[in-house]
């Protein structure tokens, strides 16, 4: 009973972890309204931009038609550039008038303007179609901030199409191409400097990003949580005779639930892939197909499982374990490949790393408990039963001694 309690206590964190993953995580610990600039600058309005963990602060002066802005991007390292832009003619990057900033190799921060004429821009310096003054940038405590005063483009009123972006620096220390997936494709919208109203990148884009998150969540729960928990149930509950056959049904329930959820995640991935013309994730897609094929084979193999006493059962068991562990490993690897492609807030990656840590600790604890139980049973099996001890006593009484019956027989034979 003590061993069962220890095992159940080890499984409890796994169950709790599965349910906690389904709860919404706190979105951000910081908002623009509670931020104070180190330089004691103050802005009358601000907004939390919906993508790339960014913020925009501004002061609009109706009399002059000018806007003083500060674009902030926290938690960015020195290997990246950031940019904020207004697009007077469209809603995307093509035609945007950008203000770019990054830290140079000598430690100074460079800020400059760059008119963009396509998605493959190199962010070369140039004049914008509207006036920009007081342009500067700072980098401190992992946060890049662009300051500028702009004159709103004529004919747009106080509402503009804004675009914000980030990407890596090349080996030469110049801006390189940004990612063309996830939040980088949706970091745009409208902004009314007078009223503060902010528009999104469009319902279609929001819907697609939502489906990407659903795809990631389904696969993380199925391949990354339910499958490993099901394997742990089979490995550790089966050591208890009283848990047979309950452990088997619990194992099957976890694996089949994981498979069903995984199929839903796999299907959404195929749909997203068909909609992403020109954007492919070959490795992520290939692993996903192999993973789905192995999982399907694993589920259907239950239909041909030999009985316990069958001579081929040991080979089926070896195959079942090998494919099962392969599914778990490939699932975890592909979850991280998906996180790299989606590029969500860092909290999602940290959350899944936390899940793996809990699974790993639970595995170690349960492994130790299982071996202790097995060793204790082995020691018991080595001890003679009461009836066997009485028989040994009788044997010793007949002169066979500690050597047992065989030695006694030889002694009797030679004494005759």
TrEMBL record:
Q: How is the cofactor bound?
A: Binds 2 heme b groups non-covalently.
Membrane-spanning parts: 6-25, 217-237, 282-304, 316-339, 351-375
What are the Cytochrome b561 domain coordinates in residue numbering? 174-375
Q: Which CDD domains match?
A: Cyt_b561_FRRS1_like, DOMON_CIL1_like
Q: Name one Pfam family in it.
A: DUF568
Q: Where does this protein reside within or beyond the cell?
A: Membrane
**Origin superkingdom:** Eukaryota
Which keywords label this protein? Electron transport, Heme, Iron, Membrane, Metal-binding, Signal, Transmembrane, Transmembrane helix, Transport
Instruction: Give residues annotated as binding heme b.
Output: 215, 251, 284, 320
Listed name of the protein: Cytochrome b561 and DOMON domain-containing protein
Q: Which PROSITE patterns match?
A: CYTOCHROME_B561, DOMON
Q: According to its record, what are the GO cellular component terms?
A: membrane
Annotated PANTHER family: CYTOCHROME B561 AND DOMON DOMAIN-CONTAINING PROTEIN
GO molecular function annotations of the record: metal ion binding
The record describes the protein's role as: May act as a catecholamine-responsive trans-membrane electron transporter.
Domain DOMON, residue spans: 52-167
| Amino-acid biosynthesis found in the keyword field | no
Q: How does it sit in the membrane?
A: Multi-pass membrane protein
What species was this sequence derived from?
Answer: Trapa incisa
What cofactor is this protein dependent on? heme b
